[in-house]
């Protein structure tokens, strides 16, 4: 075997490795997007306006939850609708990024037991074209998820109805 043949074999081996790496990366990209769509089927919520009311329809995810992409103080976040949560609950690791300040500490009963949380106020909360202002919330150091619980302090400002596998959020008149 000549040195030229050896160089061609080496180049061919690296091209094969590059091709397999590219194919693997493409598969990861496609399947991670599909997985994200199963977790959050409402990553781009559609709003409809009629009679001065704004409506957003949310589809249930595979686990039966309503997860939706929205924003707090114009910073994109992912909400998990939780009618059992008194307030909007924000993981402590997201609070500073969202411009939220820890207020008075208090105790909250959660699925994981009683935890210390800190009152805060969300200046602006958006889902699609629905925008709420000055929403009571708490910062929860015990939450490890990247999802924010969309509790009743926000939901009470909306009309919401569940039909089949759809949750309809509508602004009040």
Task: Give a brief outline of the structure.
The chain is about 25% helix and about 45% strand.
Structural write-up:
This protein has 173 residues and is α+β, with helices and mostly antiparallel strands. The chain folds into two domains: 1-39; 66-153, Acid Proteases (Cathepsin D, subunit A, domain 1), CATH 2.40.70. The chain has helices spanning 3-39, 92-95, 152-155, and strands at residues 47-50, 53-59, 67-72, 75-81, 88-91, 105-110, 113-127, 130-140, 147-150, 158-163, 166-171. The longest helix has 37 residues, at 3-39. The protein is elongated and about 80 Å long. It starts with a helix and ends with a strand. 24% of the residues are buried.
Number of strands: 11
Number of domains: 2
- Average pLDDT confidence is 88
Structural class by sheet pairing and helices: alpha+beta
Mind telling me the C-alpha Rg? 23 Å
CATH class of the largest domain: Mainly Beta
**Which stretches are low in confidence, meaning pLDDT under 50 for 5 or more residues running?**
31-35
- Secondary-structure element string: HEEEEEHEEEEHEE
Instruction: Note the total helix count.
Output: 3
Strand content: 35-45%
Can you tell me the CATH architecture of the largest domain? Beta Barrel
Helix content: 25-40%
CATH topology of the largest domain: Cathepsin D, subunit A, domain 1
What is the approximate shape?
elongated
Query: Could you give me the name of the CATH homologous superfamily of the largest domain?
Result: Acid Proteases
């Amino acid at each position: 075997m000549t040195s030229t043949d050896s160089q061609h074999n080496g180049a061919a081996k690296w091209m094969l490795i590059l091709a397999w790496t590219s194919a693997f990366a493409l598969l990861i990209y496609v399947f991670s997007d599909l997985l994200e769509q199963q977790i959050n089927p409402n990553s781009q919520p559609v709003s409809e306006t009629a009679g001065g009311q704004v409506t957003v329809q949310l589809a249930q995810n595979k686990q039966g939850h309503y997860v939706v992409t929205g924003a707090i103080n114009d910073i994109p976040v992912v909400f998990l609708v939780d009618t059992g949560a008194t307030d909007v609950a924000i993981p402590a690791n997201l609070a500073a990024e969202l411009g939220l300040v820890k207020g008075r500490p208090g105790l909250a009963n959660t699925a994981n037991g009683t935890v210390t949380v800190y009152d805060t106020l969300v200046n602006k909360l958006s889902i699609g074209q629905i925008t709420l202002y000055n929403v009571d919330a708490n910062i929860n150091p015990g939450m490890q998820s990247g999802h924010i619980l969309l509790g009743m302090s926000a939901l009470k400002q909306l009309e919401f109805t569940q039909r089949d596998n759809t949750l309809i959020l509508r602004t009040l008149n």
